[in-house]
Structures are given as structure tokens and as C-alpha cells.
Amino acid sequence: MPRVSRERTKHHASTRSGPAVVGNHRQTPTPPSNFFASVLPTATPDIASAPISLTAALSDTASPTNPTLGSKKEPVSKKGKRVERHKKWIDKLATAQSQKRQEQRHLSRQTDPSALVRGMSQIHHSLRDIQAEIMASDLLSLDTNKNKQNAQQKANIPVSRKARARAAVKEEQRFAQVLQHPAFKADALATIREHLSNTLSKPTK
Fold first, then answer.
1. Phi (first) and psi of residue 83, to 5 degrees
2. What string of DSSP letters covers 124-161?
3. Domain contains 109
4. Which residues span the domain enclosing 125?
5. Is 65 inside any structural domain?
6. How far is the first Cα of the chain from the last one, in angstroms, to the nearest whole number?
7. Which of 27, 38, 159, 182 is the most buried (most CB within 10 A)?
8. What pTM does this model have?
9. What sign does the CA torsion over 75, 79, 82, 84 have?
10. How confident is the model at residue 205, as a pLDDT?
11. What's the pLDDT tens digit per position in 144-197?
């Protein structure tokens, strides 16, 4: 009895290039199903036929967002480096000076000098005025009056150590009384000016 070969049907695309042979008969290949046609794209772009522009490629690489791409970095000269270092040093110095000014301003706000310390410049000017008046009066006075004045000043100056100690104690007591005086508490500068004008002896005419 002759052997009969069973005809088999394939449900997937054949990888063979030629038609399949079943028994003594050659079958024609069947087209792929609609499933592959729906999944695969209908037309493939021809990359080889598309023209490529060199300028367009360079413009894409050197975009405004990334200007370093496609452009060569120019070397910096020694003069440019020196100018850049000088600029950095100036900026650093300005920053340090501004910080120092802020610290000084902060310290000046914290320290609150009294009226007596703030008025030292006024006292200095008052002393200069009084000294100028004394010098003018000395120039107009006679030699005899100058001699008498010098003799009186020398007599009032303590010479011995005990006399100087007693004079220092008296000055301390008088200074304490001046601080407690109501006139000094009301206007310290005017009181000091009056005290200096009264203490510095003027020549007698």
C-alpha cells in the first residue's frame, strides 16, 4: 500500500525564500495576514535618498542654548588673564572694605558716648579762645605786671611732696563737689567753660 503524506498548513509566515514543497507538489507562498499589515508601517522612509545639509547639522549642534557645541574656545592671552586676576582682586577688596564699614557702623551704634565726651571738641575750642585772650592781654601788659604775675603763680604752686599731696586731695574733693553741683548736671559744657575762665588767672592791668 502506498504511503500517503498528510498536507500540513502553516499559520505563520515562512522564512524560506522559495515556495514550499509538499510531496511532489510545489505550493505558492501565501501573503502575510492582515495582523502584520496593521502592526508594521505601510511605508518605510528612505534614509539614503534624503539629502543631508552640513550647515543644518552644524546649526543644530551649535544652538543658542548650548553655544559651546560646534564652536572652538579661543585661548586667553596673558594680558587678559592679568586683567581678570586684577578684577577679582578688586572685587575681593571691595567686599572686605564693605564688611569693615558695616562692622564699624555696628560698633558705633552700640557705643553711646555721653554728652561730656561728645563735647570735648567744644571744650578744646573754648580753651584755645581763652588762651588767645590771655596771650593778647600778656602782650599789652607791662613787664612789671608780668613779673608780679609770675611771682604769684610760683607762690601758689606747691613745692614739697606733702604740699602736692594736700593739693591733690583738695582737687579731688572739689571735683566731687563740682560733679554734684546742679549747674554741672544741667549744662556740663557751660560749667566747665566758666570754671576754666575763672581758674586761669588773667593779668592785672
1. -65, -40
2. HHHHHHHHHHHHHHHHHS-HHHHHHHHHHHHHHS--SH
3. no
4. 120-199
5. no
6. 175
7. 27
8. 0.23
9. negative
10. 47
11. 665 666 666 665 666 678 888 888 888 888 888 888 888 888 888 888 888 777
